[in-house]
Write a structure and sequence with these properties.
mainly alpha
Length: 145
């Protein structure tokens, strides 16, 4: 199995969420597992890293909850108006920060901001940072051995 950094796994999870948003926007059916496999370029789900699978699957499992949480922090905007890349970054980080909790809150938010700087328009990272800061409650991070 190819080795990925946590940042790489987050980016691949974000790209998977982006694909999901494209399918939803176009009102097309999709297989969530196939989306993840295609993003990783794998044929077997066992070859997809566990951390990315956890972020993606928990994000899909809690899709409406995350969507509502994001929408609750938008002033003068609707969820539908947000760029699909920004939505994907928010879903990735919120899924990780609320359900996976495999990294400290600060790291999760910083990684989301870093993705925004790499994939979004110039100042979108500020919006991402603000929504993540309001959405991801502080939690006790217990580093695993």
């Amino acid at each position: 199995m190819k080795q990925y950094t946590r940042s790489d796994e987050r980016t691949k999870a974000m790209q998977s969420f982006y694909q999901v948003f494209l399918f939803l926007e176009n009102k097309e059916d999709f297989d969530a597992t196939e989306v993840l496999l295609n993003v990783f370029g794998e044929d077997d789900i066992k070859e997809v890293p566990l951390y990315a699978k956890a972020i993606y699957s928990l994000g899909l499992e809690h899709f409406e909850e995350i969507r509502s949480l994001i929408a609750s922090h938008l002033n003068g905007w609707t969820f539908e108006r947000i760029d699909d890349v920004a939505k994907a970054i928010l879903f990735t980080s919120i899924s990780e920060g609320l359900y996976v909790k495999g990294a400290p809150r600060k790291v999760v938010i910083n990684e989301g901001v870093k993705m925004a700087k790499n994939f979004c328009k110039e100042n979108d990272y500020r919006f991402i940072n603000a929504v993540l800061d309001k959405s991801i409650r502080p939690y006790e991070f217990m580093e695993q051995a």
